[in-house]
């Protein structure tokens, strides 16, 4: 099994005193990824060492953020039967409360104080200059400052969009230096802040960041435990850009480099705060102290506790339906599974919840197919170097670094050179058009003509039929070390293949056809495209990884090496790659020309099975997409049309409504309708005597599932902070940095509203991830002791850990296992 245990990068630029508080505050912010590599991230990751309820309290105190849904949401779930009496009683018992249902049932209808203003900024006691002049009394100096800092970040991190933006100069002064220079050069600063002397104040700020921080702390007069709270509060005010900066630091850490972007942003906010402290009157300072004291009270504790009881009851209601679907607690008919004689195909899918629906229907139409679940990068930790002037694209989980690089090749250096040169010229031409279009010297004729050309392209793309072309399938690749570029040895390739096969508990009983099914989603005009692709592949489609996995398995030298390590793949087994388009549920087989004649008929049967399964999957997906009543062909055409319709804001629902992950053999879940809500990862406890395989699974795939789960959770419960707003109003900033909403400057992170809400109802139920494992209790507990991040998620209630037992299931709570089904 690949060692998927991860060492999470943390900021380590400072060591004691205020420096330690600085580091801790930065580490409380979760990272985000660029749009073209976008992956779901648990926005509460930095708070994982606190209980979920305590994290909720801290976010209220410091940012006015309420992690849960309003009371009315839970009352509606109760009235609709989504929460039952046994769920509420069980939740009250978990929290150690008294069994007084009447109090809980009456509470959602009463006025409550479940939120509180975040720790106030002293800048909030000032009115912003221009906003005040325009008669907008709502905008204060704190909002003006956040806007200024956000625009500075937009200019600094711009990758290619800005044509008239300020440059960083001949040398990189860092974000702090870039910002300090910009405010010193801003001749309108006094007017915009409403403070005469603001520009002079910044001219007196020390040029070095450390000195500026120390002077600012002295001016603000905050120390001790309040210092970290203040730092965290400052970052939460520009949470989108703080998350981007944290992502820059994170990705640098994965590559062994250092980056202090988040610390620089915090320093900027701190200097602004010190400006407020320097200009504030005694009355304003007194007002600020009152705001901070009120924030520390963070609302009514009893109301918060009740809300958490309702949230837990909501989650227990889902678990009740999951146990029923799995057949726990009552007799069910045994499910037919193929034996060695009838087994024709083994199809390995990504653990993505959308794969559950396809796997279930494929097994129904092809009884001789065994499906397996494994992380969709198939254990291939690569960066993909395509032809042309493009940077390598990471195709692995964001938690991991890429030790290997897959370089596209057409078979010879001459052909590669020709291809690269042609693509270079093409990109130069495109860049020339961009410059001509956006240059201040452009004529109106150029702009208008280009606009007409784009209008024709939109019309042509909307009218074209069929699937998007995928040229990746026409190209081979060389696998080399990312650093140094040396080709991998046969032994290293064998290790890759071995880790993959052991990781999916597939070490024997191979079928004649072994299919690696990656997945992707093909849509037009969609900045959030990567969020619909494979998260395990770094927000890319999984076809490239699937092709590489199949190629390794088919190499005779690799098979010989595997046999020497105890994994014998029969000569009659052939590996094939495929890609599942999750927007249309069409599965495309790659490299058909390499298929031996002996396997052609088996592949034809499998393709027919994929097509029939796709028909059934589309019918199941029709209701949430509001496409009911269409025939099979009409439904297929409607879903294909959604992928190329540039105005479509919901081409598919992605991973909405994900709720659980199961680590078990497929025989434990085969034939069970899990409603596309469950990540399924194969795990055979009999092949993992020392528990190392389970440790790797909980330390990586479970954490990835937790990130996805809480990304969707937060995009529903706190959409104004952890969601990216209205997709119709998005503007892309900085090339691939992210999106802003409308003409705003705040970077929006998370999922768009249209990804979790259909215009009438929420399409995602915000429940924390249920983790169900088929393994002995002692083995699971051993992993918790060995993996700090796993322990933090389990013990602090960020996930709900359960195990399969002889009589159903047991839930882990405070070090004890309790029978629940």
Automatic annotation (TrEMBL):
<feature type="binding site">
    <location>
        <position position="350"/>
    </location>
    <ligand>
        <name>Zn(2+)</name>
    </ligand>
</feature>
<comment type="function">
    <text>Part of an energy-coupled inorganic carbon pump.</text>
</comment>
<protein>
    <recommendedName>
        <fullName>Probable inorganic carbon transporter subunit DabA</fullName>
    </recommendedName>
</protein>
<feature type="binding site">
    <location>
        <position position="519"/>
    </location>
    <ligand>
        <name>Zn(2+)</name>
    </ligand>
</feature>
<dbReference type="Pfam" id="PF10070">
    <property type="entry name" value="DabA"/>
</dbReference>
<comment type="subunit">
    <text>Forms a complex with DabB.</text>
</comment>
<feature type="binding site">
    <location>
        <position position="352"/>
    </location>
    <ligand>
        <name>Zn(2+)</name>
    </ligand>
</feature>
<keyword id="KW-1003">Cell membrane</keyword>
<comment type="similarity">
    <text>Belongs to the inorganic carbon transporter (TC 9.A.2) DabA family.</text>
</comment>
<feature type="binding site">
    <location>
        <position position="534"/>
    </location>
    <ligand>
        <name>Zn(2+)</name>
    </ligand>
</feature>
<keyword id="KW-0862">Zinc</keyword>
<keyword id="KW-0479">Metal-binding</keyword>
<feature type="region of interest" description="Disordered">
    <location>
        <begin position="114"/>
        <end position="135"/>
    </location>
</feature>
<keyword id="KW-0472">Membrane</keyword>
<dbReference type="InterPro" id="IPR018752">
    <property type="entry name" value="DabA"/>
</dbReference>
<feature type="compositionally biased region" description="Polar residues">
    <location>
        <begin position="114"/>
        <end position="124"/>
    </location>
</feature>
<keyword id="KW-0813">Transport</keyword>
